[in-house]
Amino acid sequence: KGTLYEGGLRVPSIVEWPSRIEPKATQFQAGAVDIFPTILEVVGLPEETMLPVHDGVSLCPLFDGESNNRKKPMGFRWNGGGAWINGRYKLVILNTSKNTKKGKQEKESQELFDLVVDPTESKSIAQEKPLVFQKLMREYAQFSQSIDESMRGRDYPSGRLEKPDPEPKRWSADETIYTPFRKVFEEEQKFLNKLTKPAKGN
């Protein structure tokens, strides 16, 4: 972990479902974002059950042996950088910083890899594949902006997952509104008056 290269992102996963999944191994790219869409399809709920913005895909076609190719790209953001995997190509954006006499200097680097021929990400092909590189950069920028919008609560309409906030109640100068609670207040004050400060050493 702790890196946006495959060594930090790619981890094994085991799914057991004897009545549906035949034993096999696959290199299919999947993540936690796929769990909810998969459950929805398993229980037969429509896709509209999910809110409009979601990054996952159902893994049921993979379970049934219908597909080994992910239809949706996968994105990651971590430590000021990010990664974007679309099919065989992967974009890695790293932000590094170091302290100098002129202060803290930050540097960003972008790399493009073909995971089919270079699974260890040993050589960037950003210059050899400029169109692919630019396409993935645009896609990652949209993905990153969507995350920012979600964090600000702008991606999801309110009222579906939670009730709207109630109208605030303000303290009033009219003390008669507190009359129903006065007896409770007095009893609590009597209890507080009985409390004594513990003696030193106790």
TrEMBL record:
GO molecular function: arylsulfatase activity
Hydrolase listed as a keyword: yes
Chain ranges of the N-sulphoglucosamine sulphohydrolase C-terminal domain: 3-130
Segments of this protein annotated with the region Disordered: 146-173
Assigned keywords, A-Z: Hydrolase
Keyword Hydrolase in annotation: yes
Residue stretches of biased makeup (Basic and acidic residues): 149-173
Family matches, as InterPro entries: Alkaline_phosphatase_core_sf (IPR017850), SGSH_C (IPR032506), Sulfatase (IPR050738)
Family to which this protein belongs: Belongs to the sulfatase family.
Name of the protein in its database record: N-sulphoglucosamine sulphohydrolase C-terminal domain-containing protein
Native organism taxonomy: unclassified sequences, metagenomes, ecological metagenomes
